[in-house]
Write a structure and sequence with these properties.
The complex is a heterodimer of chains A (about 250) and B (about 230). Chain A is built from eight helices and seven strands; from the N terminus they run E-E-H-E-E-E-E-E-H-H-H-H-H-H-H. In chain A, helix 3 packs antiparallel against helix 5 and helix 5 packs antiparallel against helix 6. Chain A has two domains: about 110 residues, Roll (Ubiquitin-like (UB roll)), CATH 3.10.20.30; about 130 residues, Fumarate Reductase Iron-sulfur Protein, Chain B, domain 2 (Orthogonal Bundle). In chain A, the strands form two sheets. Chain A has a five-stranded mixed beta sheet with strand order 2-1-5-3-4. With about 250 residues, chain A is of the alpha+beta class. Chain B is mainly alpha-helical and about 230 residues long. Chain B has one domain. Chain B has eight helices and no strands. In chain B, helix 5 packs across helix 7 and helix 7 runs antiparallel to helix 8. Chain B is globular, with a radius of gyration of 20 Å. The N and C termini of chain B lie far apart (about 65 Å). Classes of the chains: A alpha+beta (about 250), B mainly alpha (about 230). Chains A and B meet through helix 6, helix 7 and helix 8 of A and helix 1, helix 3 and helix 7 of B.
Chain lengths: ~250, ~230
């Protein structure tokens, strides 16, 4: 199939970027979206041009490294990661717009690559448990209700790709932050640090310059892992409780 | 990177927004109840209006309850506006591009599943605020009195709503209020931790928001339209 791609080209963080158009004549519908970009880059390299920089690693939808905004939607029209999106989703003759995640807290490094270090710092502010867990214990030693285990697992599938921020009209990272709060807050091991976790992570979320949540739900709709929106309400409940306990000094 | 305490975080501001909004919704429901008294006739309507002023006497002074309500409402409106201004500025910067479109692609400009109501929260809020000023000048302060002034609250209402453009302006305003509540009620309840659903559309809270919105919009539109059509009895 023949397609045309409009790609965001930006030399480095300080240079102003722009959309550049490239026609591609031999795209196989079985290619993944990233393989299509590989083909473009081979062509650019042969032509002596700078290849398009983009992030990718596992290419099987589990690492969260890849991710671009395709036709205005993070990871494109299917509910999956960019690497698991295939060209058969598109039609012959399509014009596809490809842009980096756009957010104040995700500065563009080059072309389609953004710096998502802000996510790491939010995790450092509380997205962990500090209890020494040793080697895996007998699974039935710590009972966890099945519904809680399932919901915690759903939240734990977050791969930290940043699509939620790119989709949110407010550039909020609430879905990402809330998925960690939910994942750890539903399990017994997460209880001792539950209050300090939500306070620390929200403070860091705001310090990184992410916006506030207006409950529009674009994050959940764009999330390649389908993280449910109710995790944000859980974060809100946890913070309300934590601030309440903090103010009465217990 | 400088951290501000969680008590002043975006989430805390959203709590303020939600609680102040819910206070105003509570007032709207009481206000709507009063309006519907119009169907009980002039005597009952004017008696209700008078009763609001003498409520709680002698423990409260004349118009005491009214002033308590006014102070609470003013505080709620100011808190609501304060929260939105701080968050709006912050959110614009957080979206990465100020003063231009965020994404260059002309496709999917309305996102994946965004509602019209969610797009119009901020401008719709300004329309509602402008309406409140107009409405207070009209029926509270009686500075503008289309159809003629009167000492009787009932007559003020009827005089005004016998004019088509007054009804039209109130109808437009109520539609703006309706859109604001449609997203606002869902959002407030979710902010306060009430959502248990995987997405916005399937949530029970969306159902609650729709029902409350319809009750308020229809409840407020009934008296003006009934008066315009001469059905108020």
């Amino acid at each position: 199939m023949k397609i045309t791609v409009n790609v965001w080209r930006q030399k480095d963080a300080d240079t102003k970027g722009q959309m550049v158009t490239y026609p591609l004549d031999e795209v196989d519908e079985h290619m993944s979206f990233l393989e299509m970009l590989d083909v473009l880059n081979e062509k650019l390299t042969i032509d002596g041009e700078d290849p398009v920089a983009f992030d990718s690693d596992c290419r099987e939808g589990i690492c969260g490294t890849c991710g671009v905004v395709i036709n205005g939607i993070p990871h494109g029209p299917e509910v999956t990661t960019t690497c698991q999106l295939h060209m058969r989703t598109f039609s012959d003759g399509d014009v596809i717009d490809i842009e980096p995640w756009r957010a104040g807290a995700f500065p563009v490094v080059k072309d389609l690559v953004v710096d998502r270090g802000a996510f790491d710092r939010i995790i450092q502010a509380g997205g962990y448990i500090s209890a020494p867990t040793g080697s895996a214990v007998e699974a039935n030693n710590i009972p966890v209700p099945k519904a809680d285990a399932d919901h915690a697992f759903e939240a734990a599938t977050c791969i930290g790709c940043g699509a939620c921020v790119a989709a949110c009209p407010n550039g909020s990272a609430m879905l990402f932050t809330a998925s960690k709060i939910t994942h750890l807050g539903l399990l017994p091991q997460g209880q001792p640090e539950r209050d300090s976790r939500v306070i620390g992570m929200i403070e860091q979320h705001d310090a990184e310059g992410f916006g506030g949540c207006t409950n529009i739900g674009e994050c959940t709709a764009a999330c390649p892992k389908g993280i449910p929106l109710d995790v944000i309400s859980r974060l809100n409940r946890d913070l309300l409780g934590a601030l309440g306990r903090q103010s009465i000094g217990s | 990177m400088k951290r501000t305490p969680a008590t002043r975080s975006t989430v805390a501001l959203k709590y303020l927004m939600a609680v102040s909004g819910l206070i105003m919704i509570g007032y709207l429901l009481l206000h709507m109840y009063g309006n519907l008294k119009v169907f009980a006739g002039k005597e009952a309507f004017d008696e209700y209006a008078h009763h609001l002023r003498t409520f709680g006497e002698p423990m409260l002074p004349y118009e005491g309850l009214l002033w308590i309500v006014r102070v609470v409402l003013l505080a709620a409106i100011l808190a609501h506006i304060y929260a939105v201004v701080v968050l709006w500025r912050r959110n614009r910067a957080a979206a990465g591009v100020v003063g231009a479109r965020r994404y260059h692609s002309s496709k999917n400009r309305t996102g994946i599943q965004r509602s019209y109501a969610s797009f119009t929260m901020r401008w719709g809020g300004i329309v509602v605020l402008a309406f409140i000023v107009y409405h207070l000048l009209h029926l509270t302060a009686n500075v503008i009195h289309p159809g003629g002034a009167s000492d009787s609250p009932y007559e003020r209402v009827v005089n005004g709503f016998e004019i088509w453009w007054v009804v039209a302006s109130y109808t437009v305003a109520m539609l703006a209020v309706g859109f604001h509540l449609w997203h606002g009620i869902w959002s407030a309840l979710t902010t306060l931790g009430g959502n248990r659903s995987a997405n916005r559309i399937d949530s029970r809270l969306t159902g609650i928001a729709v029902v409350v919105t319809l009750v308020i919009v229809l409840g407020f539109l009934l008296p003006p339209w009934a008066i315009l059509l001469g059905l108020e009895g």
